[in-house]
Design a protein that fits this description.
With 115 residues, this protein is mostly helical. Helix content is 26%, strand content 6%. It has 2 helices and 2 strands. The protein has a two-stranded antiparallel ribbon.
Length: 115
């Protein structure tokens, strides 16, 4: 596979509301902006990362064996806390569903008319 996608960190709707967030520092490509914007962009990205990692922006959910968590990958920033391998075993299984397939299924089931 050679999957590529270019999009802003914060995607907006036509009326300026936040539609989605794409924020993963390890997957971000080099900045392609005018030289005068490089430092302000780095400062803005750093400030946004600090906000995302702050305690006031965090919700912690402790899952038990058999629990399932489902979320919209571009509407919720998510991660995992550190794990002590001496404290037990952790097994995570992930699956992704393309949002267009999800919305199509909702429409076909007739559960929502405005998606």
């Amino acid at each position: 596979h050679d999957l590529r996608w270019r999009a802003p960190v914060i995607g907006l709707t036509d009326d300026g509301a936040v539609r989605e967030v794409r924020f993963h520092t390890a997957l971000r490509e080099p900045l392609d902006v005018a030289n005068a914007l490089i430092e302000p962009m780095h400062r803005a990205l750093h400030a946004f990362e600090e906000l995302c990692r702050s305690e006031r922006a965090r919700v912690t959910v402790h899952l038990q064996a058999g629990d399932v968590m489902v979320f919209h990958n571009r509407r919720v920033l998510h991660g995992r806390t550190a794990f002590d391998p001496g404290g037990g075993r952790r097994s995570l299984h992930g699956a992704y569903v393309d949002v267009d397939e999800w919305l199509s299924r909702i429409r076909m089931l007739g559960t929502s008319e405005d998606t």
